[in-house]
């Protein structure tokens, strides 16, 4: 009888060990709102102007698309326990550049600055119910 219980216990443990438990953060959810261009353009530079933005936060992470014209750079962003957000992504567009997302989550609000050498944006997003 002891052998049978031990085998069942091992089988249950190994089944759980292979299952990734979904981690969540208090920031998880869908955020949407306004995006405004704060710097950009110039000779030969066309910055995409978007008036709205939306991100889905899952497990304290989200992807923000930096969009300086003809390229779309996905920046993986992480949210720290204190609500600060940071992400960077290297890319090439007429030379090497880095897209940076930085900001803060406060309550149900996400405020972020997004930019690189060519264009700079600010996003003010609210968590959707």
Distance between the termini: 52 Å
Rg is: 21 Å
Q: Total number of helical segments?
A: 1
H/E order of the elements? HEEEEEEEE
- Total E-strand runs: 8
Q: What percent of the residues sit in helical stretches (DSSP H or I)?
A: 10-25%
The gross shape turns out to be: globular
Q: Spans with pLDDT under 50 lasting ≥5 residues? A: 1-22
What does this protein look like?
The protein is globular. By secondary structure, it is mainly β. The longest helix has 16 residues, at 2-17. It has one domain. It has an 8-stranded antiparallel beta sheet with strand order 2-1-8-7-6-5-4-3, with no helix packed on it. The chain has one helix at 2-17; strands at 29-39, 52-57, 61-66, 73-79, 84-92, 96-106, 109-115, 120-127.
Summarize the structure.
This protein has 129 residues and is mostly beta strands. It has one helix at residues 2-17, and strands spanning 29-39, 52-57, 61-66, 73-79, 84-92, 96-106, 109-115, 120-127.
Core attributes:
129 residues, 12% helix, globular, disordered N terminus
Secondary-structure map:
Blueprint: H1 2-17, E1 29-39, E2 52-57, E3 61-66, E4 73-79, E5 84-92, E6 96-106, E7 109-115, E8 120-127
Antiparallel strand pairs: 1-2, 1-8, 3-4, 4-5, 5-6, 6-7, 7-8
């Amino acid at each position: 009888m002891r052998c049978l219980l031990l085998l069942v216990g091992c089988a249950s443990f190994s089944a759980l060990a292979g299952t990734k438990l979904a981690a969540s953060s208090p920031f998880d959810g869908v955020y949407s709102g306004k995006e405004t261009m704060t710097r950009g353009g110039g000779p030969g530079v066309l910055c995409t102007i978007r008036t709205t933005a939306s991100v889905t936060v899952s497990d304290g992470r989200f992807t923000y698309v930096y969009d300086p014209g003809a390229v779309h750079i996905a920046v993986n962003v992480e949210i720290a326990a204190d609500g600060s957000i940071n992400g960077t992504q290297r890319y090439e567009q007429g030379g090497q550049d880095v897209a940076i997302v930085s900001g803060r989550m406060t309550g149900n609000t996400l405020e972020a600055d997004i930019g690189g050498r060519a264009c700079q944006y600010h996003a003010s997003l609210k968590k959707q119910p």
